[in-house]
Amino acid sequence: MDGIVYGKNSVLEALNAGNREINKILISKNIHTDSKISKIKELAQQKGIVFQFVGREKFQPYEEFNHQGVIAQISPIEYVDIDDFIEDKSAKEGYSSVVVLDGIEDAHNLGAIIRTCVCAGVDGIIIPSHRNTQVNSTVDKISQGAVNLIPIIKVNSLINAIQKLKDNNWWIIATDASANDNYYDVKYHDMNYALIMGAEHAGVSKSLLKASDFVVKIPMQNNFNSLNVSNATSAILFEALRQKLIFNRKK
Question: What is the mean pLDDT of residues 194-218?
């Protein structure tokens, strides 16, 4: 099966080798903890990899495999380092853009956002290593392969990533339903910008809102403000692209 490593020995080998990005390790609640399980937990903690003890139902899709109650979910891509990304963009002419995702839990939303970012000419996507869906085979499929066409940066701390961007002449734009300004009032074509999008149920975290230079909203009619995050991202990114195309045409 694409995107997984299963069995105690195989997962241990993947952890020790360190040459494949491991998104998450699932460990069955129903197996006895032995030296190998203990070692898997120890290595995962050292490397900052999430591991979860889960019930039998999580292993149903893998019943044909001798998984021994342990499965590692492997990313189909190689994540990009944020410092390398910033350095690369700083060396190029023109303004750059990046989308920062804060707590996106649905793989279909993440895949759709990645596809939109590629179509709208965004230069990169930043996701946190915790409390956010990682790039997996479902995300790859929904993106129609767009995961291979854009740098995806995984960071341990979004607030630290935002500060690095600010220190390198990037402007931070966060979205919030209660904002005073509308998304189309920002001049996207005239700056390096990072657009922060939050999950529907929680929105952008307070710490990121506080660190932002602009906070904008998408105006809603009929007192209904539950626009899907992938649709909201599309609306803003294509407004930014519209501005860029008009600006370039006037040069």
Answer: 93
The verdict on 125 and 225 lying in the same domain is: yes
Dihedral of CA atoms 224, 228, 231, 233 in degrees, nearest 10, equals 100
Residues 41 and 129 in one domain: no
User: What is the domain range of residue 160?
Assistant: 82-250
pLDDT tens digits for range 160-186: 999 999 999 999 999 998 899 999 999
Q: Is the pTM of this model over 0.70?
A: yes
Are 208 and 126 in contact by the 8 Å Cβ rule? The answer is: no
pLDDT surpasses 90 at 40: yes
Distance CA 160, CA 124 (A): 17
Strands (E), the chain: 4-6, 22-28, 50-54, 70-74, 97-102, 124-128, 152-155, 170-175, 181-182, 192-198, 214-217
Beta-bridge partner residues of 27: 53, 70
